[in-house]
TrEMBL record:
Taxonomic path: Bacteria, Pseudomonadati, Pseudomonadota, Gammaproteobacteria, Oceanospirillales
Domain of life (superkingdom): Bacteria
A Pfam cross-reference name: rve
PANTHER family: TRANSPOSASE INSF FOR INSERTION SEQUENCE IS3B-RELATED (PTHR46889), TRANSPOSASE INSO FOR INSERTION SEQUENCE ELEMENT IS911B-RELATED (PTHR46889:SF4)
Protein name in the entry: Transposase, putative
Database matches in SUPFAM superfamilies: Ribonuclease H-like (SSF53098)
InterPro entries attached to this UniProt entry: Integrase_cat-core (IPR001584), RNaseH-like_sf (IPR012337), RNaseH_sf (IPR036397), Transpos_IS3 (IPR048020), Transposase_IS3/IS150/IS904 (IPR050900)
Organism: Alcanivorax dieselolei (strain DSM 16502 / CGMCC 1.3690 / MCCC 1A00001 / B-5)
Annotated GO MF terms: nucleic acid binding
Listed GO biological process terms: DNA integration
UniProt domain Integrase catalytic: residue ranges: 123-286
Length: 286
């Protein structure tokens, strides 16, 4: 009953806090989460195939991509398609060690690139005037965990956050929807700045922003300093928090990110750009 209560309220409070209050261990909760639940015959076949693919990838030191692993599966007698293998590998976060690093893909000619309207003007007088956003990836036992955040440049508060196994435009949209519901800004007064990643130049993301009359700004190609505040946030997250955790599961890492962004960073960590105040304390002075 206690584990079920934690699972039903983890969106409102960190798992760490819930476990302490209910006097149960986090390890016990995660064992309960991953307990077997009678998968269907189809899902069992998918799981068997996925286990085989990951074992083959491990034996080959993470070198083969999904096409070569598909050939291995065919040779082993699995009846599967190339797209199915790609989907199963993507679902568990597997990437070939020789694959192009996420975030450094060749831009698609059909996606628009907008000018750098922010122009490194990082000092903003009022909330909900400038939001900046970026995406990073964190290594976990099952593969990568991708994190998208949106910061308010005035208060440095994290107004939107989304986590997932796949680095796509859906990650950005979930972060935007959370930020909009939380802050309810006036679209015409808001500038949204990001890099030129394909996730931000996606038609769905740009349409979402245009529908709300938000002005869109993008960094110049290969210039991380144009989005320095978002880049700095992720550097702090990794240096202060995730580095000491080691290689943990995705669910545990997600809980740690939630705790850092919702509690430690806005309520505890002092920000010298804000005169030594925490983001929440600074916001209270406005």
């Amino acid at each position: 009953m206690r584990f079920a209560f934690i699972d039903g309220h983890r969106d409102r409070w960190p798992v760490t806090v819930l476990c302490e209050v209910l006097d149960v261990s986090r390890a016990g909760y995660y064992r309960w989460c991953h307990a077997p639940c009678r998968p269907s015959a189809r899902r069992q076949r998918w799981r068997t195939l996925q286990t085989f693919l990951l074992e083959q990838a491990k034996q080959q030191d993470g070198v083969p991509g999904y096409r070569k692993l598909w050939l291995d599966a065919q040779a082993a007698g699995f009846a599967c398609g190339k797209n199915q293998v790609q989907r199963l590998l993507r679902a568990c976060g597997y990437r070939s060690s020789v694959a192009t690093k996420p975030g450094h893909r060749r831009p698609s000619s059909g996606l628009p690139v907008l000018p750098n309207l922010l122009n490194r003007q990082f000092n903003v007088a009022h909330p909900n005037q400038v939001w900046v956003s970026d995406i990073t990836q964190l290594p976990c036992q099952e593969g990568w965990l991708y994190v998208a955040v949106i910061l308010d440049l005035c208060t440095r508060q994290v107004v939107g956050r989304a986590l997932g196994r796949v680095n796509d435009s859906g990650l950005v949209l979930r972060a935007l929807e959370q930020a909009w519901a939380c802050r309810q800004p006036r679209g015409k007064d808001l500038l949204f700045h990001s890099d030129q990643g394909v996730q931000y130049r996606n038609e769905a993301v740009m349409g979402w922003l245009n529908d709300r009359d938000v002005t869109i700004s993008m960094s110049r190609p290969g210039n991380c300093w144009d989005n320095a505040c978002a880049e700095s946030f992720f550097a702090l997250l990794k240096k202060e928090w995730t580095k000491r955790l080691g290689l943990i599961g995705r669910d545990e890492m997600a809980d740690e990110i939630q705790y850092y962004t919702d509690h430690f960073y806005p309520k505890v960590r002092r920000h010298m750009t804000l005169g030594g105040l925490t983001p929440n304390d600074y916001a209270a002075t406005l």
